[in-house]
Structure formats: C-alpha cells, structure tokens
Design brief:
By secondary structure, the protein is an alpha/beta fold. 48% of the residues lie in helices and 13% in strands. The protein has two domains: 4-222 and 236-243, 3-Layer(aba) Sandwich (Rossmann fold); 245-284. It has helices at 4-10, 44-55, 57-76, 79-91, 96-105, 107-112, 117-124, 137-146, 180-190, 206-209, 246-280, and strands at residues 28-31, 128-136, 152-156, 158-161, 166-171, 197-200, 214-217. It is globular and about 50 Å long.
C-alpha cells in the first residue's frame, strides 16, 4: 500500500465540464481563486496594482524587477516562499487602510472582468460558498463577498504593526495558504460537515479537494468564457477594462514611470520659473 501523500499524488479529478449539478449535492463548495474562478492563474499583476495604488509607483517598479526571481523561487524552490516574497515586497510598510481602499476601489474592476463562466456557474449554484486561496484576505475579501457572493475567504493573513497600522511584510502562522494548509483551513472551517464540492486548478489544490465529497479540476484555457457583469452580485460600470496581463504590465509600467518623472520635472521647472519671476520683480 502506498503512503497517503503518494496515493494523493496519483488521484485524478474529473474536469469542471463534467460537473452535473442535477446529480450532485451542491449545498456547499470550497473553491480556489486564481486559475479557478478567475481565468488568470498568475496573481502578481494584481499585486503590482495594489503596490502602486496603496504604495507608490516606485514600489510597483521594484516589485516588477523582483517578479523573475519570485517566479524562479515558485518553480524550483517553494510556492510558500515565493508567496512570502511577493507579499513582503508588495506590502511592507504600507498602511493597511490604503491596501483596503485599493482592494475596494481598484481590484474589483479587474477581477470582475476575469471571472470564468464554467467554474462560476458551479460556484454560484451552491448555498454555502467559501474561497480558499493563497492571496492575502485583505486583498480579495471585498471582491469575493460583494461580487461573487462568497460567504468567507480562507486565505493568507498579513502581519500588521499595531502602533503604526502598517503591514510588516510578513504573514501570520501558518504562513501562505497553500497545499496542506488549505486542507487544514477547510477542516477547521467546516468541521465534520465537509464541502459537497471542491474545485481547483493545480496539484497543490488536490489536498483540500480530496476531503470534499467530490472534486473537479479547472483546466487552463485562455479562450474560456467569462461571466457577464450582470451575473455578478454587485454591478460595475466597465470602461473597456482589461485584465492586467504580464505583457501589458511589463510594457506600460516603465512608460508610466518615465511620463510621471517627466511630469514632475516639468511642474517643478514651471514652479521655479514662476517663483523666480515673482521674486525677481521690483514692486517699488
């Protein structure tokens, strides 16, 4: 008999397209977010948005430079460690209130444009809906509850300095919610009444999917349909919002930084000219 971890690795789950809600109990569901309910499996473009909106353009640029290193760590070392790096660079020293403002006012527009239709239909059909994600709760809580109709977010909790109300950049135990920590979070939240359905998109989701009554994999599909804004729980006014892809982020951010510095330089030069003109004149 194989050890439990090897047995789990061999376990396969049917695709989300095979989920027949008429024959499956769908009172409760536990779902991953990135790559599952959202088409995009990469979350760092959203981190960059928060880093710029809650922090500064410089922080966004620094995070952008760190992205290749974080990607290497994710693939070859540890998903947990990569997540810790991403959170530290994005949030260290940032006011929690500013992160919350960005999470309420900026992120929902981008998240809502990327909600995947097939997995959302399954998610929305359930009565009790819980998201289990590696993302910080403060980042996704508003979107999950107000736009997806989720009941609760089980995610990574960031540490906050109580004196300054700023993020320290570190995370609370047990760390970034990946792998077995998602499973333990589900067990703690649901106790003996485990979810009827579990959906995820990667191997590290198998841990929590395996304890659900039935699990479904959401395959990567860049052509997968997205949900109409009318189907979400809160209406958004869309102005041709596009998901901040890796390519557009890398292209636009450097140009934005150059334009910002040029804008500041021109304003300062103009201000100096006005001051010199005023103080250079003789009023007598």
């Amino acid at each position: 008999m194989l050890p439990p971890e090897l047995e789990l690795a061999r376990k396969t789950f049917p695709l989300i397209s095979e989920c027949d809600l008429s024959s499956v109990s769908h009172r409760s569901i536990a779902a991953d977010l990135d790559g599952t309910l959202l088409k995009a499996s990469l979350s760092f473009p959203y981190y960059i948005l928060v880093a710029i909106e809650a922090g500064s353009l410089l922080r966004g640029l620094i995070l952008l430079l760190f992205v290749p290193i974080i990607a290497v760590v994710y693939v070859f070392i540890s998903e947990d460690f990569a997540g810790r790096m991403l959170i530290f660079v994005s949030f260290a020293g940032v006011k929690v209130s500013d992160i919350e403002v960005a999470a309420r006012g900026v992120l929902p527009r981008f998240y809502a444009a990327d909600v995947r239709s097939d997995s959302f239909e399954v998610f929305d059909s359930c009565e009790r809906k819980v998201i289990v994600t590696a993302n910080p709760i403060v980042m996704v809580d508003t979107f999950v509850k107000e736009f997806l109709g989720g009941e609760k977010v089980l995610g990574t909790e960031i540490e906050v300095d109580p004196r300054t109300n700023r993020a320290t950049g570190f995370v609370k135990e047990p760390g970034v919610l990946v792998g077995k920590w998602k499973k333990l979070a589900i067990l703690k939240e649901f106790d003996e009444d485990l979810p009827d359905i579990g959906i995820g998109d990667r191997e590290s989701d198998h841990d929590f999917m395996s304890i659900c009554k039935v699990g479904y994999m959401v395959p990567k599909d860049h052509s997968a349909g997205t949900v109409s804004p009318d189907r979400l729980k809160t209406r958004l006014i869309f102005h041709k919002v596009q998901q901040p892809s890796v390519v557009t982020t890398y292209i636009r951010l450097p140009f934005r930084s150059i334009l910002s510095f040029a804008h500041v330089y021109c304003n300062l030069s103009l201000l100096k000219g006005i001051i010199r003109c005023i103080y250079g004149r003789r009023w007598w």
